[in-house]
Each structure stands twice: as C-alpha cells, then as structure tokens.
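hiii so um. not sure if this is the right channel but i have a protein structure encoded as tokens and i wanna go backwards to a sequence. like what aa goes where. can anyone help
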C-alpha cells in the first residue's frame, strides 16, 4: 500500500519522497513534506510547490482527497484502492507483506554456554532472534541463523568435573567437592546417565574428566535444542568455539601483519583503543594461551570471510564491553565494522501472583525456560518477550498470561481472530466467497478499520529496520481492539451489508493471523 503510494508520487516528482503519518486522522492516511526539499532545488515557496503537486495528484485514482496544507501534501486513499489491495491480500495470503529479495544477513543469537539448561534470560534473546529472523525473511532479507557454541575454556572442564564428582557420589565413592562446580539436579541426572551409558569405570580416574566433559557438553546441547524446539526455535548453523582455535595462528599472524597487536609485560595486546575502545585488550596470556577475546576475534574474522552483507549478534547485556574490542578487530582486518550490529538483550524478572518466581531445583539457582513454557505455553512466552525493546528490562507475572480476558494480550488478539471465524460460521459463508465483494459504500469507521488492517506490511518493515519488534505486538493489539469495538458497534450477520462486512472482517483476521505467524504463534480459530 505504502509502496503503491510512493510509486504514484514518483510519477510526478523526480526527487526522493518521504511519506509520514499525519498527527490527526482528519488530515488523511499519509502526508509528504517533499515541497520543503524541492523548495531548495526549485527556489520556490514550498506552499506554492505543495499546491501545484496537489493539483497533479487529484486525478490519481488511488486518492480520494489530496490537500496542500502549510507546505505539506496530505493524502487520503480512495475506497476502491483500499478494496483492490484488500482483495489482492486475501487471495495472496502467503505474499501479504513480503518484500523483494535484499541483503544477506548472518544472525547469531542464543549462544548460551552448554553447561546447563536454558534459563529465562536466554529465552528472551532466543525468542527475539527467532522473530527478527522470521520478520526479516518475510520482508526480503536472506537470513541465516547461527548458534555459537561456547565450548572452549575452563567452563567445559568444570562441567565434566561436576558430572564426575556427582557420578562418584552416586556410585558411593569418595568425593571432595571443590569450591567451584556446577550445582543442580540436572548435574545429578547427567551423572546417572553417564554411569549407565559410559560405565562406572569413567568415574575411577580423573584423567577421564575431559572425555566426560565432551560427552556432557553434547548432552547439554541436545537438551538446549530440545528447549528451543519446544518454543519453535531452530538454527541453520552451529559453530564450535573450540574448533576455531585451530585457526588462531593464522588469524594472529594477520593481526601482526597489520600492526594491530603488540607485546608488553609478557602478553600480547590488541590496539583496540585505535578504534574506540577505552583500553587495549589482552589476546595472548603470559603462558601463551589465547584469551576468550581471541576466540571472538577468530569467529568474526571467519564470519566476514563468509561474505554476508550484514552480521547481527544478539548478546546478553553483560557483554556490552565486548562490542568495541570486537569491532576494532574487524576494522584491523580491513572490513567495515558497521556491517556488524550488536543487539543487547536485558534480563527478565518473573513474578507469580506478585511474588518473585521460585528458582528451579533442577537448575540450581535460576528459572528454567522449559518450566515457563510448560506453565504458560510457548505462544504467551513469545508474545510477552516481544512487548518491549530487547535492551530494556522486562518484568511480567505468569498468572496474568493465564487469564482469559482483555488484560491478557495474546488472548485478546486470538479472540478477535476467532470471532471472525465464528461470524462466517454463523452466516453459513465460506471466506473465499466474499473475497471479490466490493467494499464501497461502508461508513468511515469501516474504512478506518480496513486501512489499519492493511498497514501490516509497513509495520513489519518498520519493526525490522528499527529493530523494534514490539511495534508488531502493539499493532496487533491495537488492531484487535479496533475490531472488537467495530464488532460491538455494528451488526454484521443478517444485514444488507453482511457480505461487505464479512470481507472487512476477513481482512482484519488476515493481518492478525499473518502478524501472529511471524511472531511464531498460530492464530486461534475457536476460543
């Protein structure tokens, strides 16, 4: 719809056009300030340019009214045009809101350490990344989803040690617990499974710990993938951090060639201050071992070698300090660091009946993603995580998402969608039967609802480009609210305009359904 308006304007203007939403509905559906830009080029008064442009556009069939107001050109779309677009959308549901194929994007998200089950903080980044991928693909981006497995360093050995000691305890062998180890029933469960699968001999010699650690890591990755699958989240690629260090000598050599590193106090440092970091960072320790940052540097070096147009990482907010140092390394390799975008995901506070949600005994000291999915369902979990920007704190009460009333947004939206299906059933009409029905002759509130329902494509583009996915949840809730009000204010079945109003209802349901689908939620047809 917006694209068609822009194409129409460009027929009359040889200059880039910007479309805005008027502050008040009375001014129309769109407005353009193009006259102010043209005034500099044409050296004419912008109000005069706006008047001339309005006169040219008056005869375009897609507009019902074109007005020049204080240099702006206000545009109200015609009923036939809205009806034409509505008919096309109903007949082409899979293509509704789809964009032309554009840039390729490598999207890395979740990347939780494979040392325990996914907790509720991981879940937010997981849902957010999944929906960014879904919406991005729908509006035309070629998106690949990637999980970076943090399987290098002491944490994996510590996982193996924890399972080893829990296994010994299970077998009745002597155990001396260290100060640092992983706790929780999941460790005990892993240990019991390891005894059954690998045999008791695995727990008689500490030299077996690395082997046990690799086994436990694979088990945890399987559990993590199961947790994600329960919420409808999947990946195209997995990259092992451990495997990357085979390329460290090559990457380190390239950093040396570019004078990006220097030796001091027995360590090697990257000159990250040259690219905006607050201080230089160590990449090789005194004992010659590369640091955690070195793994990130190798990973991003290899990422850019893969030739995507853009790279997006969704990180936990505690990784904020790594942004400048990773981008510095990218710049040293001769790539544009602006092609890497880091989106931060803040933590989540969970309540139950107004009280802090209890930690999981299975996990030790955090709330499991799987527990919340089991309690409120994946749909509610997805929706609530998308109601705020990812970099802002989120707090919600799980009991609110079980309510069957207007306070529960997912219920409220689903009810609007199901209400449409119940109308068709009551009228004894199949939806396709009304697709070609003309929508001309309805009242202004009907056209307001129709216009709002047809806004979904531009809402999706805006939400993706601005990285503000909450714009989709806001849109769906507002559209559902408009439809509920329209339903209460208008009798539909059994009226002279029944088929027109059923078509209007079908368009509304279409946008609710497609919007929810892109959030990973299947719209309800019955409530």
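sure thing!! here u go:
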């Amino acid at each position: 719809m917006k694209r068609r308006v822009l194409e129409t304007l460009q027929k009359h203007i040889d200059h880039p056009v910007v479309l805005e939403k008027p502050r008040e509905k009375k001014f129309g559906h769109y407005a353009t300030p193009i006259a102010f830009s043209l005034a500099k080029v044409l050296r004419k008064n912008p109000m005069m340019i706006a008047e001339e442009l309005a006169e040219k556009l008056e005869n375009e069939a897609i507009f019902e009214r074109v007005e020049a107001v204080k240099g702006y050109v206000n545009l109200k779309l015609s009923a036939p045009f809205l009806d034409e677009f509505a008919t096309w959308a109903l007949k082409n549901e899979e293509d509704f809101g789809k964009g032309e194929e554009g840039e390729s994007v490598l999207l890395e998200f979740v990347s939780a350490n494979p040392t325990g089950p996914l907790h509720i903080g991981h879940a937010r980044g997981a849902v957010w990344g999944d929906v960014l991928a879904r919406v991005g693909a729908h509006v035309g981006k070629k998106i690949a989803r990637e999980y970076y497995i943090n399987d290098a360093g002491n944490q994996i050995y510590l996982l193996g040690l924890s399972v080893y000691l829990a296994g010994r305890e299970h077998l009745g062998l002597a155990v001396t617990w260290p100060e640092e180890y992983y706790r929780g029933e999941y460790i005990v469960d892993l240990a019991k499974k390891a005894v059954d699968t690998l045999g008791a001999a695995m727990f008689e010699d500490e030299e077996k710990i690395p082997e046990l650690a690799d086994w436990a890591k694979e088990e945890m990755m399987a559990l993590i993938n199961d947790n994600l699958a329960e919420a409808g989240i999947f990946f195209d690629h997995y990259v092992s951090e451990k495997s990357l260090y085979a390329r460290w000598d090559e990457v380190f050599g390239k950093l040396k060639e570019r004078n990006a590193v220097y030796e001091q106090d027995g360590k090697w440092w990257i000159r990250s201050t040259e690219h905006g970091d607050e201080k230089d960072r160590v990449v090789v320790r005194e004992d010659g071992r590369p640091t955690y940052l070195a793994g990130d540097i190798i990973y991003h070096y290899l990422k850019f070698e893969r030739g995507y147009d853009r790279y997006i990482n969704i990180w936990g907010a505690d990784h904020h300090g790594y942004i400048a140092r990773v981008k510095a390394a990218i710049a040293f390799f001769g790539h544009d660091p602006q092609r890497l975008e880091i989106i931060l995901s803040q933590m989540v506070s969970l309540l139950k009946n107004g009280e802090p949600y209890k930690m999981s005994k299975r996990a030790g000291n955090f709330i499991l993603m799987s527990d919340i999915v089991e309690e409120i369902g994946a749909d509610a979990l997805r929706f609530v995580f998308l109601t705020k920007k990812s970099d802002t704190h989120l707090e919600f009460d799980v009991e609110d998402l079980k309510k069957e009333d207007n306070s529960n947004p997912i219920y409220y939206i689903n009810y609007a969608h199901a209400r449409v299906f119940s109308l068709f059933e009551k009228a004894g009409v199949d939806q396709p039967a009304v697709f070609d029905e003309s929508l001309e002759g309805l009242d202004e509130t009907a056209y307001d609802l129709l216009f709002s329902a047809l806004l979904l494509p531009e809402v999706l583009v805006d939400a993706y480009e601005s990285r503000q996915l909450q714009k989709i949840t806001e849109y769906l809730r507002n559209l559902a609210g408009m439809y509920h009000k329209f339903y209460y204010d208008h009798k539909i079945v059994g009226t002279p305009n029944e088929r027109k109003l059923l078509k209007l209802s079908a368009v509304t349901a279409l946008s609710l359904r497609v919007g929810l689908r892109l959030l990973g939620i299947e719209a309800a047809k019955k409530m």
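oh and The first strand starts at residue 30 and ends at 32.
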